[in-house]
Design brief:
Length: about 350
């Protein structure tokens, strides 16, 4: 899916049925030019207001870093099952460690009972490894360095990558603030701790017959993300789809050298739904070779960005006063909301 240029700094990735996901040059956010920064910030905000999704190119993370992150992730999932299980995810409050296939069901449902029904009929076809902020009392990360030197290298790689993504979160939140007419540092004090979640994902190969026998089967169920924004680094397999306002499911085709960014629920609540938290899912990718009876494995790396857990989230001034419904959501503590959503999906 080749981007179609619309300006020197932004272009548009088009999909059928008139959904357009903008392709925006991140480099201009690092510009000393206030006008260039303002133009890019407005483009980012506009994308979040329209469809909740965008692509970023020229991000400040080296391709070699991403290659090592993906290689380290693949090596982790190739470990013996007993090693992965020894690092198992335990509680929503911690949200760290290995999640075996079938343990989580991503869903838009808020009720645990409803999520369990979905899990019984259409379990997610994935395994993951969750990494949180280091140094949180009572919630240590479950690193594989206890097994071998490769595990120690894995820890070093992911710790460094976590910090690079944290800085991207800060810069994107600055852009959102500028686009909204706020001071560019408005969000800095409430994203300073980095209470974020780095998720490594492996979708194992799947026989075609799995999807043929169960028409509702997907690799990851339809859901919106919970935090402020999400940074998605994906391989070229494909399968990610976003739901339009008309209810259609459209492909978010991988574009090499880009990061997919989408807004989450807490950012939508913060802006009284001025910014959209859009549902998305992962389905089987297209098969390019005739006669192939299985879908290949897919890997992705997701960095879920959140406000600091002690942040109180309610509609910002200027986002609700002219809305005929006023404030659409009651105020809520960030950490409480995240635990509530995670509790339903496990």
């Amino acid at each position: 899916m080749a981007p179609i240029a619309t300006s020197p700094d932004t272009s548009t990735s088009t999909t059928p049925k008139n959904l357009a996901i903008p392709l925006i040059d991140f480099h201009t956010l690092l510009s000393a030019s206030a006008s260039a920064k303002a133009e890019t910030s407005k483009a980012i905000l506009s994308a979040f207001e329209e469809d909740g999704f965008l692509y970023l190119k020229n991000v400040p993370i080296a391709p070699s870093t991403l290659s090592e992150v993906f290689a380290s992730s693949k090596r982790f999932f190739e470990r013996q099952q007993w090693q992965k299980d020894a690092l198992a995810w335990t509680t929503p409050s911690s949200n760290r460690g290995y999640v075996a296939r079938g343990r989580e069901k991503t869903s838009s449902q808020l009720s645990r009972d409803e999520v369990q029904k979905e899990k019984s009929s259409n379990p997610d076809l994935k395994e993951s490894f969750e990494i949180g902020r280091e140094g949180v009392d009572g919630h240590p990360n479950q690193w594989p360095h206890i097994f071998d030197l490769e595990g120690a290298d894995f820890k070093k790689t992911m710790e460094g990558f976590y910090q690079e993504c944290k800085e991207m979160h800060r810069l994107i939140m600055s852009a959102i603030a500028i686009g909204m007419g706020l001071d560019e540092h408005y969000f800095h004090k409430i994203v300073s701790k980095g209470d974020n979640n780095l998720r490594l994902l492996h979708y194992p190969f799947v026989k075609k017959e799995v999807f043929e026998k169960n028409k509702g089967q997907v690799r990851a169920g339809a859901h919106s993300d919970y935090g402020s924004i999400t940074l998605l680094f994906q391989d070229m397999r494909g399968g990610l789809q976003v739901q339009t306002s008309a209810g259609d499911w459209l492909d978010v085709t991988p574009i090499e050298g880009t990061v997919v960014v989408n807004a989450g629920d807490l950012l939508a609540r913060w802006t009284n739904d001025v910014i959209k938290s859009t549902k998305h899912r992962v389905v089987e990718p297209p098969i390019s070779e005739d006669g192939v009876d299985e879908y290949p494995a897919r890997y992705s790396v997701v960095y879920f960005c959140n406000p600091d857990y002690d942040t109180w989230i309610e509609a910002l001034p200027g986002t609700w006063e002219k809305d005929k419904y006023g404030k659409k959501y009651e105020g809520i503590n960030c950490g409480d909301y995240l635990v509530q959503r995670l509790s339903a999906t496990y």
